[in-house]
Specification:
- Chain A: It is found in: Nucleus.
- Chain A: InterPro entries: Mediator_Med4.
- Chain A: This is Mediator of RNA polymerase II transcription subunit 4.
- The complex is a heterodimer.
- Chain A is about 70% helix and about 5% strand.
- Chain A contains 9 helices and 3 strands.
- Chain A has a 3-stranded antiparallel β-sheet, with no helix packed on it.
- In chain B, helix 2 runs antiparallel to helix 3.
- The mean pLDDT of chain B is about 80.
- Chain B is an all-alpha fold.
- Chain B starts with a helix and ends in a 9-residue tail after the last helix.
- Chain B contains 4 helices and no strands.
- The chains are: A mainly alpha, B mainly alpha.
- Chains A and B meet through helix 3 and helix 4 of A and helix 2, helix 3 and helix 4 of B.
């Protein structure tokens, strides 16, 4: 392209060289398939303009400067050939416009596929996240199942434990509660002593150093003694009229268990009984 | 600006080879004919020369118009070979994307696990 403009400027006055330019242009357009059709068309137009200009100049030039017959005829033929080439190239352009239409359709299709792929990828990513969360949770559950399998707990023990919890943490007394029933809505002294804190303050037992590792162990330790509470109402604990509780220890007789404020406890019992009666009355209402 | 752009793109869409006005030879022929016509009358000569210069201007205008119209033709930014290559590339792209979609769709046959 640079060659063309250079030659055009340089050779405006020299017909021979102009013809050379035209021929060079022609060779460029014919030989190089890299040149776009648009450039090719513009080259041909440049050539035609150049030839036309030269022919018109020749027509109005003085006689001694005019071209010879064969040269003139050659130029005219070249112009006609260029015109023909222009028309051929325009046909090519028409074909290319058709191809462009097809390409537009294809481009639209590709764009639509792109959208679909993007959508699918987003959904797959979401699914992956959900699945990985589910797998993580399932793994956790499996781990706890393994843990549970390693140290199985009998259902009876569980139910006893549940009873105990509901007995010692209830808001009001159970319906079957009667005077003399050692069950309380709070941990009793015996339970406290059996518990972790009771052992902490008991230096004789040496539990300061050998503390159970976790609370479940503690419950386990306390379980058999406390779990039997409903059944051992007559056996292990005896409610004495004096208000003291006696606990039987391995058939060695009963050991008096100090209840610090047994008077207050009896008051509590009364309060509890009134509570239950009031609640039942409110229920009946 | 937008309306200009729109009108330009409309023109680009509508411009086809049939719409082009690239008839150079007839105008050129007219010019040569009027130059070579020999007039005896001076006034006729002057008129003819004015007419001739008008036609030369018209020829120039025709060239410029042809150039601007050619730049509006669609799909001629590449040679035909290059354009065909692009077309092939697009077809391959579409095919690959289609395959990818197919793969995605049937990647996890959940219904097979029943």
């Amino acid at each position: 392209m640079g060659d063309v403009s250079y030659v055009k400027i340089d050779l405006t006055s020299n017909l021979f060289c102009k013809c050379t330019v035209v021929i060079i242009n022609t060779k460029i357009t014919e030989m190089s398939s890299q040149i776009s059709t648009k450039e090719k068309l513009l080259y041909i137009l440049d050539d035609m303009e150049l030839i036309a200009k030269e022919l018109i100049e020749n027509a109005i030039a003085p006689k001694h400067l005019k071209l010879s017959g064969p040269e003139y005829a050659q130029l005219t033929e070249l112009l006609v050939a260029k015109d023909e080439e222009l028309k051929q190239t325009l046909k090519l352009a028409q074909k290319q416009a058709d191809i462009e239409e097809k390409m537009d359709v294809l481009r639209l299709e590709v764009e639509r596929r792109d959208k679909d792929i993007n959508q699918l990828q987003t959904k797959l990513k979401e699914a992956e996240q959900i699945l990985s969360t589910a797998i993580y949770q399932a793994n956790q559950k499996l781990q706890s199942i393994h843990r549970a399998n390693k140290r199985p707990v009998s259902s009876e023990e569980l139910i006893k434990f549940a009873h105990r919890i509901s007995a010692s943490n209830a808001v009001c007394a159970p319906l079957t509660w009667q005077q003399g029933d050692p069950r309380r809505p709070y941990p009793t002294d015996i339970e406290m002593r059996l518990g972790f804190l009771g052992r902490l303050s008991d230096p004789i037992n040496g539990h300061l150093l050998q503390q159970p590792n976790n609370i479940s162990d503690l419950h386990r330790l306390g379980g058999p003694a406390t779990g039997d509470i409903p059944a051992s109402q007559q056996n292990q604990f005896a409610w004495l009229p004096s208000g003291e509780i006696h606990m039987s220890v391995g058939g060695q007789g009963s050991v008096p268990v100090e209840t610090r404020n047994h008077k207050q406890e009896t008051e509590d019992v009364e309060v509890m009984s009134t509570d239950s009666s009031s609640s039942s009355s409110s229920d009946s209402q | 600006m937008d309306s200009n752009n729109e009108s330009n793109s409309d023109l680009q869409k509508r411009m086809t080879v049939d719409d082009l006005n690239i008839e150079i030879l007839p105008v050129f022929y007219e010019i040569i004919k009027s130059v070579e016509r020999d007039h005896h009358d001076n006034t006729a000569k002057t008129r003819e020369s004015q007419d001739c210069s008008q036609k030369v201007l018209e020829l120039q205008k025709r060239f410029d118009q042809a150039r601007s119209q050619i730049s509006l033709l669609p799909g001629i930014d590449y040679s035909k070979e290059q354009q065909l290559q692009h077309l092939e590339a697009l077809k391959t792209q579409l095919h690959l994307k289609q395959e990818l979609l197919y793969k995605y769709r049937f990647m996890y046959p959940f219904q097979m696990q029943k």
